[in-house]
Design goal:
The complex is a heterodimer of chains A (247) and B (243). Chain A has 247 residues and is α/β, with parallel strands linked by helices. Chain A is 37% helix and 26% strand. Chain A has helices spanning 48-55, 77-82, 99-109, 114-128, 143-155, 173-186, 199-205, 223-227, 235-246, and strands spanning 8-19, 22-33, 37-41, 63-68, 71-72, 84-87, 161-165, 191-196, 208-213, 216-221. In chain A, the strands form 2 sheets. A 6-stranded mixed beta sheet of chain A has the order 6-7-8-3-9-10, sandwiched between helices. In chain A, helix 3 (99-109) crosses helix 4 (114-128). With 243 residues, chain B is an all-alpha fold. Helix content of chain B is 81%, strand content 0%. Chain B has helices at residues 2-17, 20-39, 51-79, 81-85, 92-112, 115-124, 129-154, 160-176, 180-189, 191-199, 202-210, 216-240. In chain B, helix 9 packs antiparallel against helix 10. Chain B is globular and about 55 Å long. The chains are: A alpha/beta (247), B mainly alpha (243). The interface between A and B is medium-sized, with 32 and 21 residues.
């Protein structure tokens, strides 16, 4: 529990990843509580995706630990992944599967069957507006639709924790707006981490922003606080100032 | 178990959703037929058995089984879907077993479609169908052994061609391990290895089945062989998944 009584759903402590002599993520620590939408910012190659992969239990950290709803992502991985909705970088999906086939597969792996499964797939499809393409193989879809299929898969089990790596990448402005609205709607009862390098997105949906550069956390504050750190009051300038210093 | 079957179901569906299934089955049947009837002299022998059929089947598998397994992990890694698969609430062992079972079931389907051989030989004479049945059991086990090798090696690389070539090469070693050219060479230099080579030879073990002998030792050999490679597969997936 944090000071203001919210429950912490994501705990990251001293997370480090080294590839040979290169340190991609350097002792990153932060917590995310229910109701928070954390914007994870940083230039390309700063370690955003690596951190998210370690949080999702996909990549084994060199040091440090991550917990989701109290479950250690390495020691108790299956339990941690059960309460996690994860959109990997680039929203990978099986190209030969139809949208509905893919979502049913994900639902079945998550333990649903019969009417419950159908209802959950239907709900995820509604949330991400995939109704028109259900029977199309994923490989025939546009980039925006593929991203939404990945998003639907992450929302299928209505998880308390969502980790979305660039959820709006490749979407047109209307679709971006829809996804942001969706995230804002879900925010009160979930802990959400989204990575992005679109700074307007942080203003639009995030309650808090972390900027990382060269693997280190260089800022952790609300978007409004961040804006005050530069005379111009623009996030762009704050971002540039913080990340250029670190690099 | 449920998770293994769900993964297997998806994987098997993927074979049939792409031309892989039809191309493989057609080529397998044509190749197997041509070898049995022409090279094997199926009719000229004047005997009601499937010996020519079973003589060639390990060699056809040696060439075609790696084509089934090369995509299992290499493609997941190239497309990035491995990140999706392994962040679902399943263990890596379940994913490995599921994929292997799908490939094995696919081989079983291809083998089942060779039933016209059985019908032909039964129409032409009175074969010992028990021997034929044990030959099929042996064929399925050889397929399983090659599949487990191919699946493990597929986890080594993102490149399907490399996965294919590696699998053919390693399966070939296990196929010919008991051949005189190998064992003579080994017994002259390292006699210990010659003995090991004879014991791990897949085709040697298979020949017992084609004579109608299903021995517990051979079955245990195949189960151990497959188990070892699938264990290696799980370790390799764990090591290489995020590279």
């Amino acid at each position: 529990m944090t000071a203001d009584g919210q429950s912490v759903l994501i705990e990251i402590a001293g997370l480090t990843k080294r590839f040979g002599s290169f340190t991609a993520v350097d002792t990153v620590s932060f917590n995310v509580a229910r109701g928070e939408v954390l914007g994870f910012l940083g230039p390309n190659g700063a370690g955003k995706s690596t951190t998210m992969r370690m949080l999702a239990g996909f990549m084994i950290p060199t040091a440090g630990r991550a917990r989701i709803c109290g479950h250690d992502v390495q020691a108790d991985g299956v339990a941690a992944r059960r309460v996690l909705g994860f959109l990997p970088e680039g929203a990978p999906t099986y190209p030969e599967m139809t949208v509905t086939g893919f979502l049913h597969f994900c639902g079945k792996v998550r333990g649903y069957s019969g009417r419950d499964l159908a209802r959950r797939v239907e709900r995820a499809v509604e949330l991400t507006r995939l109704q028109g393409v259900l029977l199309q193989p994923v490989e025939t879809l546009s980039k925006g639709f593929k991203r939404r299929v990945g998003l639907a898969q992450a929302l299928l089990h209505d998880p308390p924790v969502l980790v979305l790596d660039e959820p709006t990448d490749g979407l047109d402005p209307n679709q971006k707006h829809e996804v942001r609205t969706l995230i804002a709607q879900m925010a009160p009862e979930k802990a959400i981490v989204i990575s992005t390098h679109i700074l307007e997105e942080v203003d639009a949906v995030c309650t808090r922003a972390i900027i990382i550069a060269a693997g280190r956390v260089v800022a952790d504050a609300t978007p409004a606080d961040l804006q005050r750190r530069h005379p111009s009051g623009k996030l762009d300038d704050v971002f540039r100032q913080l990340t250029m210093q670190a690099a | 178990m449920r998770n293994i079957l769900i993964v297997a179901g998806r994987e098997l569906g993927a074979y049939f959703a792409t031309p892989v299934a039809s191309v493989f089955i057609v080529i397998f049947l044509v190749l197997q037929g041509a070898l049995t009837f022409n090279l094997g002299g199926f009719f000229d022998r004047g005997q009601a058995d499937l010996n020519p059929f079973f003589t060639f089947i390990p060699w056809v598998f040696l060439l075609l089984v790696p084509a089934i397994t090369m995509r299992l992990w290499a493609e997941e890694r190239r497309l990035g879907t491995i990140e999706l698969l392994l962040t679902l609430p399943i263990t890596q062992a379940q994913a490995v077993l599921g994929k292997f079972l799908a490939a094995w079931a696919f081989c079983a389907i291809a083998l089942l479609l060779t039933f016209p051989f059985v019908i032909t030989v039964n129409l032409l004479g009175r074969p010992d169908n028990g021997v034929i049945a044990s030959g099929y059991v042996g064929s399925l086990l050889v397929a399983g052994a090659f599949l487990s090798v191919g699946s493990a090696l597929s986890a080594l690389t993102k490149n399907q061609v490399i996965a294919f070539v590696l699998a053919v090469a390693v399966c070939f070693i296990f196929a010919v391990a008991s051949y005189p050219v190998v064992t003579d060479f080994l017994s002259r230099n390292t006699p210990v290895l010659a003995d090991i080579a004879r014991r791990i030879a897949v085709i040697d073990r298979f020949q017992d089945f084609t004579r109608g002998v299903v021995s517990l030792r051979d079955v245990i050999f195949f189960i151990t062989f497959i188990g070892f490679w699938l264990f290696l597969n799980t370790v390799l997936v764990d090591q290489r998944k995020a590279d």
